[in-house]
Write a structure and sequence with these properties.
The protein has 2 domains: 120 residues, 3-Layer(aba) Sandwich (Rossmann fold); 189 residues, Rossmann fold (3-Layer(aba) Sandwich). The two termini are 22 Å apart. Helix 1 links the parallel strand 1 and strand 2. The strands form 2 sheets. Strands 8-7-6-9-10-11-12 form a 7-stranded parallel sheet, with helices on both faces. A 5-stranded parallel sheet has the order 2-1-3-4-5, sandwiched between helices. The chain is built from 12 helices and 12 strands. It binds 2-OXO-4-methylpentanoic acid (COI). 2-OXO-4-methylpentanoic acid binds next to loops.
């Protein structure tokens, strides 16, 4: 099997080479996303892998079919960038990967603590030798009610980590998980919005969760709520979130993702003009901590993503099935 790997970062190359050897596949790689312009790179390959900034839409899927590419694996857990239905229609087999949830879960708790302790402002002040305390009084997590929306592997691990902080934990999931019920109280989403001091999102981006954080849901939240999003930007309607910020609804926001981040995050744009106005506007607020979709980014996760993608594509080719196939 020959695999074309797109969106390959330098830190993935070593693992890609080892994985190709281990699973006995031929591999070519490029740093560019998979797009109509870069598609030629995959010529002669039977399988393709990319990260989430490549749109696997009808156009790309048609190109894959015409080029005889039968397998695609996203090196991500999320797969909202893939038109799965159309892939199925064309008979192109699609996989995702799994990696330890700990990296994202730890990062989530870090953003909670940074938000509660106003660390962004403290850090900025330190850079100009301003060591004042005024305005930096924080709140203690042990006295908070934390609402976890989505109790899959990441949400569940957040709840596990939070056990040590002594906070009250509420959870919501369309499919509650018995093992979580021992550590958190499952409630209706409206109750979670109403009672939580900190809300963190760990749900996939689906039609049903798109813009779940909007004017109506924000209105149901406590004044001063801390909102954390390490999942997908489009879970939140960014203009409704901005309205909320302007109306001083939020105590803080910790956002590792933001709507329309594609093509911006994970790239050095120091000398470019970035045309995401919402991102520029929201970044300035003292209580909004934004990072470049990096919660996943640990050595452990990167290794799992690369090895997982190569193995899944090899399995599809060799055995006709993979445990990570998406339909
Ligand atoms: C995912 O695995 O779904 C992620 O969000 C990480 C990706 C940006 C590399």
């Amino acid at each position: 099997l020959k695999i074309a790997a797109f969106e390959v970062r330098k830190d993935e190359i070593k693992d890609f080479k080892k994985a190709a050897e281990k699973y006995n596949v031929e591999l070519i790689f490029t740093g560019k996303p998979l797009s109509v312009e870069t598609f030629d790179f995959a010529e002669g390959c039977g399988a393709v892998t990319s990260l989430g900034h490549s749109r696997i839409d009808r156009v790309i899927l048609n190109l894959m079919r015409d080029a005889g590419i039968r397998f695609y694996c996203t090196r991500t857990v999320g797969y909202n960038h893939i038109n799965l239905e159309y892939a199925r229609e064309l008979g192109i087999r699609i996989c995702n990967v799994s990696y330890p949830p700990n990296g994202v879960a730890e990062y989530t708790v870090m953003l909670m603590l940074m938000s509660l302790r106003k660390y962004k402002q403290a850090m900025f002040r330190g850079n100009v030798n301003d060591y004042s305390l005024e305005g930096l009084e924080g709140r203690e997590l042990r006295n908070m009610t934390v609402g976890v929306v989505g109790t899959g592997r990441i949400g569940r691990t957040v709840i596990e980590i939070l056990q040590g902080f002594g906070c009250r934990i509420l959870a919501y999931d369309a499919y509650p998980n018995g093992s979580v019920a021992d550590m958190a109280k499952y409630v209706e989403l409206d109750t979670l919005y109403d009672e939580s001091d900190v809300i963190t999102l760990h749900t996939p981006l689906l039609e049903s969760t798109y813009h779940m954080i909007n004017r109506e849901s924000i209105a149901k939240m406590k004044d001063g709520v801390v909102l954390i999003n390490c999942a997908r930007g489009s879970l939140m309607d960014v203009s409704d979130v901005i309205d909320g910020i302007e109306k001083q609804k939020f105590g803080a926001l910790g956002l590792d993702v933001i709507e329309h981040e594609d093509g911006i995050y994970h790239v050095n744009h120091t000398v470019d003009i970035i045309s995401n106005r919402d991102m520029a506007y929201i970044r300035q607020f003292p209580h909004v901590t934004m990072t470049q979709h990096m919660a996943f980014y640990t050595e452990e996760a990167v290794r799992s993503m690369v090895y997982g993608a190569v193995k899944n594509l090899r399995d599809l080719n060799k055995t006709g099935s993979s445990a990570f196939e998406l339909f």
